[in-house]
Amino acid sequence: MSTFTQYISDFFSLLFPDLCAACGKQLFHGEKQICTACLYDLPYTDFHLYAENAVAKLFWGRINCQAAMAMLYFRKGTKVQQLIHQLKYRSQPDLGFRLGVLLGERLVTASPRPDLIIPVPLHPKKERSRGYNQSRMIAEGIASVMHIPVGTTQLIRQRATGTQTKRNRYKRFENMKAVFSVQDSGELTDKHVLLVDDVITTGATLEACGQVLLDTGLTKLSIAAIAFAE
Ligand SMILES: [Zn+2]
Question: What are the extents of the domains in the chain?
Answer without folding.
Answer: 1-41, 43-229
